[in-house]
Amino acid sequence: MNQDEVDRSETDLVVLDNEPSWREFQERALRRAGFRQVVAYPGKSQHLDEYLNHGSGRKADLVVFGIQPDNDGCWEHLRAIRQFYEGPLLATTERNRAGLRDRVIDLGCADCLSMGEYGEEGLELKVDTVLAAHRINSMIDENDHRNQRLFVNILTVMVKILESKDPYTRFHSHSVALWSRMIGRKKGLSEEELIRLGLAAVFHDFGKIGIPEEILNKPSRLTDEEFEVMKQHPTIARDLLSSLDLLHDLLPAITHHHERWDGRGYPAALRAEDTPLWARIICIADAYDTMASRRTYKDPMPTERVIEELKKGRAQQFDPELVDIMLEILAEREAEAQAQGAPGNGKK
Ligand SMILES: [Fe+2]
Asked: Do 200 and 334 share a domain, yes or no?
């Protein structure tokens, strides 16, 4: 069977219509057409959710909804169905009139069939067409999602390649992701948010791919001009990644990870809580990891110095509450390390 053909013996339908004679007519017609299960209820029923689930936990493959255009309640019911039923909806009406089709399509129906004109056979064929179109659209969505996932994996490899050019930044984005998630957890983010935050952290410096290597790997201090070029990396990342739907929710965190609490950061000079929370978290995780790790131009800072710098940056560079959270995490890790007789923070 082709993907655009419908196996009626595997397809369950629900008919919702307030008008008993039309309801029975449609139910009978679709049963005769060989659909596996056809059940019919008044559209205004209080238990629509149960009906659409067929009482068996299985969503109806398609809902036929009878519209009486002059009955306001009927439009409300249609809206209500869309709250809990994501499958295809076919509106039917006794006679079509101007603007009706557009109105039902706006409310999420696939089409509107005039039963008076097309009758029983028209209903069968329209149900098949809507089911086939829904199936094809779902396959396209699925493929698109799969392609985007693949693309995100490729980008992750690109981040690793970018970082591997400098042995001292090899694990930087991974490490910033770990610290960001630790801070985010204490700040009360959900598990789903922590996963997304971690991914934003992995990509936080993705824009460095567009910065010339002589600036990126310069062992000495950057000149003012070079620093201006370097400052473009968050917006380069935003521009490069903005076409990917799967990363869309991460863009504010990536774009603003160099803002400062006092408004002297870049690219938008956002102040305090105007900077998105995830960006504020990545900012402090990034600063901590950079201070505590070796770079071509510097040795790792001892933990006491890092703590001092974090405190100095409180309410200047960093969100004060996040500094407290970071200090708490560092203290906990230190205590844990001491309990195990191992070296603590800053000696990674
Ligand atoms: Fe950065």
From this structure: yes
Q: How many domains does the chain have?
A: 2
User: Are residue 171 and residue 136 in the same domain, yes or no?
Assistant: no
Give residue 153 CA to ligand 1 midpoint distance, Å.
20
pLDDT tens per residue, range 269-321? 999 999 999 999 999 999 999 999 877 667 788 889 999 999 999 999 999 99
Expressed in angstroms and rounded, the spacing between residue 304 Cα and the centre of ligand 1 is 24
Q: Are both 20 and 71 inside the same structural domain?
A: yes
The tens digit of pLDDT for each residue in 25-62 reads: 999 999 999 998 888 888 776 666 666 765 555 678 99
Q: Output the CA 305–ligand 1 centroid distance in Å.
A: 21
Q: How far is the CA of 215 from the centre of ligand 1 (A)?
A: 14
Q: Which amino acid is at 333?
A: R
84 and 203 both lie in a single domain: no
CA-to-CA separations, 263 to 154, 267, 268, 318, in angstroms, rounded? 34, 10, 9, 10
User: Is residue 152 assigned to a domain?
Assistant: no
**Distance of alpha carbon 110 from alpha carbon 265, whole angstroms:** 49
Tens digits of per-residue pLDDT, 70-110?
888 888 888 888 887 888 999 999 887 888 989 999 999 99
Q: Compute the distance from residue 257 Cα to the ligand 1 centre, in Å.
A: 7
Query: Measuring CA to CA, which residue among 61, 244, 231 is closest to residue 151?
Result: 244
Last residue of a domain, one of 96, 126, 141: 141
Say how far apart CA 347 and CA 216 lie, in whole Å: 25
Judge whether 159 lies within some domain: no
Ligand 1 geometric centre to CA of 258 (Å):
6
**Do residue 236 and residue 317 come from a single domain?**
yes
Cα 175 to ligand 1 centre (Å): 13
pTM here is 0.62
- For ligand 1, the distance from its centroid to the CA atom of residue 154, given in whole angstroms, is 20
What is the Å distance from ligand 1's center to 286 Cα? 8
Q: Which domain holds residue 300?
A: 165-339
Nearest to 261 by CA among 237, 279, 238: 279
Residue 47: predicted pLDDT: 67
